[in-house]
Amino acid sequence: MINFTITNALKKLKNKEISSVELTKAYLARIKKLEPKINAFVTVTENEAIEEARKADKKRAAGSDSPLLGIPLSIKDNFSTKGIRTTASSRVLDDYIPPFDATVVKKLKNAGAVILGKTNMDAWAHGSSTETSDYGSTKNPWDTDYLPGGSSGGGAASVASDETIAAIGSETAGSIRQPASWCGVVGLKPTYGRVSRYGVVAMGSSLDSPGPITKSVTDAAILLQVLAGSDPYDATTSPLPIPDYLKNINKNIRGLKIGISDDYFDGVDNEVKEKVEDAIQVLEKLGAKTKNIKLIHPKYSIAVYTIIQRAEVSSNLARFDGIRYGNDRSYFGDEAKRRIMLGTYTLSAGYYDAYYNKAMKVRTAIINDFNKAFNNVDVIIGPTSPTTALKVGASKDQSMFGELQDMLVEPSSLAGLSGVNVPVGFSKAGLPIGMDIIGPQLGEEIILNTAYKYEQETNWNKIKPKL
Amino acid sequence: MSKNKIDVTHISRLANLPLSEDEKKELGSQLEDTLSYIQELNEIDTKNTDPTSQVTGLENVTRDDKPTDSLTQDEALANAKEVHNGLFKVKAILSNE
Predict the structure, then answer these.
(1) Which of A137, A208, A302, A324 has the smallest C-beta neighbourhood within 10 Å, fewest atoms?
(2) Which residue of B1, B6, B7, B17 to mutate against A (max A Cβ within 10 Å)?
(3) A344–B23: do the CB atoms touch at under 8 Å?
(4) Model confidence band, residue B93 (pLDDT cutoffs 50, 70, 90)
(5) Could you tell me if A380 and A438 are in contact, meaning their C-beta atoms sit under 8 angstroms apart?
(6) In A, which residues are within 8 Å of B13 by CB distance?
(7) Contact at 8 Å (CB) between A337 and A363?
(8) Which member of A238, A399, A441 has the closest CB to residue B30?
(9) Which helix (H) or strand (E) holds A291?
(10) B positions 26-45 inside 8 Å of A (CB)
């Protein structure tokens, strides 16, 4: 039962073929077996999970049918969980027990989900490898000599290795889609403001977007339905109505206009390029039309993102003083120190205009560029990552590792757009490859529809790593 | 964006970040590395472009001024390393003079 999707599991739970306790115990056993190899979790909440599963079974017996009732999930360790240690994979928060739940966690609990544990990540979500975690790197389930990507690497690895049904991650620029790509699973980065940031350990506050990592596109839609919505505790959440994300997921895509920008294939590994091009052909066979578009070269987004993200990091991490909670500032790891220092520098007197203000202006240019493109196309497709998973150790002492890895997803993140990684096959070495389907702001319906149609034509998500 | 030597000690003081001499040296060169990536931005003309600080388009978001549930004193203090009489204990920041 460990290879269930949410859809399968809900059916079995409803038909009383399995109980949530059985399901939860199966995943806990799988976690126990695989964690020495994968290290996807910082904290496993075994007792709490079984207790919640028991409650879910009771509720179902009493007639409740909330959307995730009894479904076991993993949650990235930067979401505050009341009474459960939340470290953001940094020793600064080694002993921090939040006295409240993040809005995302509250919503999942209200929907009946069972939390299996908190997943590993790059410390403070700074990185694309999980190698900056103070609790050891997570390993890629397809080959444990390789990295899972990051920062939501623990979440993506927990899904790929069937240690959970699905995971909740967060993305600032790439942190859901890139590990999903490297681990061969679906990763949805919602529009900035569609999902509340309240209670998420803040990284880049103008960019952070919580979202699901799943085994199928349908599961991503089911989770987004639960997570989306305005929140009085996060003034940047959108007040616009939430569509039914499953309603149009299977809609015919004949006539769908796909934008392709050659610059997004520039410098990309040949194997990755070929698989993404094959995937686009699959969509064309279904009636989609491709159109070449010109976008600002993604390399400029690296610079914009680096300035804006580091600036926001230096401000957000200023609150960690070791007085109210957590340890003092000497506990920050190298990557956090680098980012705090650069952010402090670019915001300091005399440099603000040259760096931060300039970056904010180019950010406007990137937004306008996408707006113009979406006048002519419905979605934009490219590779999620320029490579397949890299070897353990690849990020060591590379101060721009994350940015170079995330080059292709940073532009859409800066513009606050929606995007989804969908698996499109494997390299000769057996490592997964993913494509990024980018939609406009609040374009989740169209990207889920496109992703679903592709998934129906292929069966990449049926292939599992040998573990 | 002229290439400036970064005063690492000054920046670490602004950031309230304790750094060893070795760390200062290493961070200094890494920061200059990173800044060299950033120079590329000058290639994009932004003379007539306004800066974007947030992408939602929402402005002046308010809520009703009604009290809602908040943490109890005990909950708020539960994670503090040092407390005194129900308060956070901090180091003195003023001297006698």
Answers:
(1) A324
(2) B17
(3) no
(4) confident
(5) yes
(6) none
(7) no
(8) A399
(9) strand A289-292
(10) 27, 30-31, 33-35, 37-44
Residue A392 pLDDT more than 70? yes
- The domain ranges of chain B are 8-43
* pLDDT tens digits along A19-77: 999 999 999 999 999 999 999 999 999 999 999 999 999 999 999 999 999 999 999 99
- Calpha distance A433→A438 (Å, rounded): 16
Structural domain spans, chain A: 6-462
- Those residues whose C-beta lies under 8 Å from the C-beta of residue A172, and which sit 6 or more positions away, are A125, A151, A203, A204, A207, A208, A209, A309, A413
d(CA A422, CA A69): 26
Contacts of residue A364 in chain B, CB cutoff 8 Å? 46, 49-52
* Least confident interval from A176-185, A308-317, A396-405: A396-405
* DSSP letter (8 states) at residue A125: G
| Element of type H or E holding A431 | none
The phi-psi region of residue A263 (left if phi > 0; otherwise alpha if psi is between -120 and 50; otherwise beta) is: alpha
> Which residue of A99, A325, A361 is in closest CB contact with B46?
A361
Identify from A341, A441, A442 which residue to disrupt to test chain B contact, counting B C-beta atoms within 10 A and taking the largest count.
A341
Nearest CA in chain A to B74: A99
CA distance A357 to A351: 9
Give pLDDT tens digits for A92-109.
999 999 999 999 999 999
Regarding an ipTM greater than 0.90, the answer is: yes
Whether B93 and chain A come into contact, CB under 8 Å, resolves to: no
Q: What is the DSSP string of chain B?
A: -------HHHHHHHTT----HHHHHHHHHHHHHHHHHHGGGGGS--TT----S-SS---S------------HHHHHTT-S-EETTEE-----S---
**Domain A6-462: CATH class, spelled out:** alpha beta
Among residues A227, A110, A90, the alpha carbon closest in space to that of A168 is found at A227
Percentage of chain B exceeding pLDDT 70: 95
Taking alpha carbons only, the member of A333, A386, A425, A390 closest to residue A89 is A333
Residues of chain B found within 8 Å of residue A336, distances taken between Cβ atoms: none
| CB contact A85 to B (< 8 Å) | no
Q: How far is A146 from chain B (nearest CA, A)?
A: 25
